[in-house]
Amino acid sequence: PDIAAAEAELAAATADVGVATAELFPRLTLVGGIGQQARALGDFTSTDSTYFSIGPSLHWPIFTGGQVRAQIAAADARQLQAAARYEKAVLGALADSESAIDRHAAAAKTASELDIARDRAATALELARQRFRAGEDDLLVLLDAQSRFNAADRAAIQAKTQALQAWFALVKALGGGWADPQLAGS
Asked: What are the b/e assignments for 47-66, b being 16+ CB within 10 Å?
């Protein structure tokens, strides 16, 4: 949206340069008029009192050339400012997108690593349960394995949440939005 707004501003500023430049050239227009004219009040309703006028009109700012050139220079300056704002918006959007991509990649990698850690903790918990049932370990070892699994599971869930948040930030940085699937079909 920022880039689109800056682009529209640049297009308008560029058009203003063209409008200002057009003031240097003559303009020929066709002017027409109709009216009523009478010497006495009663003659207004007569068709003889109606008059028409049609003719060309020429406008050429011969004596204001310096002012027109100053307006062109001002329009050029506004166009250069708009171009700089557009470039700034594009570079800012690229920087935001790159940062969002990096954050998403890091969050996805962390989520993947913590999923592996949770799977290993689940395997260790299952082994601790089997050893406890067989009488090889006491309850403290089983509870410790359960605690480690719970911590690994919680960390994996938090990492997935952060990965999803990074994904949404990436979609937003790329100019995407949320569309309700139920509304999109109707």
From this structure: eeeeeeeeeeeeeeeeeeee
Q: Could you tell me if 20 and 75 are in contact, meaning their C-beta atoms sit under 8 angstroms apart?
A: yes
By the 10 Å C-beta count (0-12 exposed, 13-18 middle, 19+ buried), 1 is classed as exposed
Neighbours of 116 (CB within 10 A): 11
Pick from 37, 35, 38: nearest CA to 52: 35
Distance, CA of 115 to CA of 155 (rounded, Å): 9
Q: In whole angstroms, what is the distance from residue 111 CA to residue 154 CA?
A: 11
Q: What is the pLDDT of residues 17-47, one digit of tens each?
A: 988 888 878 888 888 888 778 777 777 677 7
Cα–Cα dist 58/43, whole Å: 34
**Predicted confidence (pLDDT) per residue in 47-98, tens digit:** 777 777 888 887 777 777 688 888 889 999 999 999 999 999 999 988 988 9
pLDDT of 185: 52
Distance of CA 42 to the CA centre of its chain: 67
User: How far apart are alpha carbons 180 and 184 in whole angstroms?
Assistant: 6
| pTM listed for this prediction | 0.59
Q: Which residues pair with 29 in a beta bridge?
A: 57
